[in-house]
Amino acid sequence: MSTSKIALVTGGSRGLGKDMALNIAQKGIDVILTYRSKKEEADDTVNQIEAYGQRAFALQLDMEKFATINEFVSTVKSEIKTRWNVSTLDYLVNNAGMGATVPFEQVTVELFDSFMNVHFKGIYFLTQQLLPIMNSGGRIINISTGTTRFSNPGYSVYASMKGAIEVFTKYLAKELGAKGISANVVAPGPIETDFNNGAIRSNPQLKSALSSMSPLGRTGNSDDIGPVVAFLCTEEAKWINGQRIEVSGGING
After folding, report:
1. Neighbouring C-beta atoms of residue 124, cutoff 10 Å
2. Residue 89 · residue 24 · CB < 8 Å
3. How far apart, in whole angstroms, are the C-alpha atoms of residue 97 and residue 239?
């Protein structure tokens, strides 16, 4: 019987999700992470977690393909029984996402539906299906964005879905409290990763402009976010519930 707690981090193979998974592992928590297509990156992250002395494995999950969520949850259940000899999870980090900068007038129904599945519908029902196997004392951490607080042209679809996630999180906190499960939002500001085709990292002008808007004079990095998510998976954070925690360096404050 495993004594370690277990976290599931969607999109945990790269970028922000990888840093979340690694920081969670450094708290002595085992990790299940998901990847969409790049198994090699996922396996590398698993190896790094194992180097910390924690157990980990990776599962493929494409949040855009909503119909696959049932099968994914069944696989999670069987894998934790096989690998840990347990039937429950402790932490769920809904991080997997997709990015695109599209002016409102150019948004198509197809793009809208993709973002809906990945950023709201998929998260809503993945959380619902995993809830029966979450332990009392468990935590749900949903990843949002600073652009629900300040508007950034081209992000109308992305930010609207994240706004829905923020409302959803408040309801989770209210309705799951009786089960001893808390729910919070972490909302990163501008971060240099390969997200949205490396929109910030690959554009020196945009990076400079965003840096000048921050009181700390820079854009964020993955390691600015992962430790905050990991903290929410600790006993020190047990009384934080229903909150939106923006981790943006104070941009547009």
Report:
1. 16
2. no
3. 28
**Are the beta carbons of 181 and 127 closer than 8 angstroms?**
no
For 130, the token pair is 């995993």
Decide if 176 contacts 183 (C-beta within 8 A).
Answer: yes
In this prediction, residue 12 carries a pLDDT of 96
Name 75's Cβ contacts closer than 8 Å, sequence gap at least 6.
59
Phi/psi of residue 212, nearest 5 degrees: -70, -20
Q: Residue 63 contacts by C-beta under 8 Å, 6 or more apart in sequence?
A: 10, 36, 96, 97, 117, 118, 122, 123, 126
d(CA 152, CA 159): 9
Provide the 8-state DSSP code for 187. E
Per-residue confidence (pLDDT) for residue 2, from 0 to 100: 56
Query: How far is residue 184's CA from residue 174's CA, in Å, rounded to a whole number?
Result: 11
Domains with residue ranges and CATH for the chain: 6-247 (3.40.50.720)
Closest CA to 9 of 245, 225, 176, 170: 225
Alpha-helical regions (H) of the chain: 15-25, 39-51, 69-84, 109-116, 122-130, 156-176, 195-198, 204-213, 222-231
| Ordered mean pLDDT values, 10 residues apiece, the chain (253 residues) | 86 95 98 96 98 98 96 98 97 95 97 97 98 98 95 94 98 98 95 58 64 73 93 97 94 78
CA–CA separation, 188 and 223 (whole Å): 11
* Relative orientation angle of helices 222-231 and 15-25, to the nearest 10 degrees: 40
Catalytic residue annotation: 158
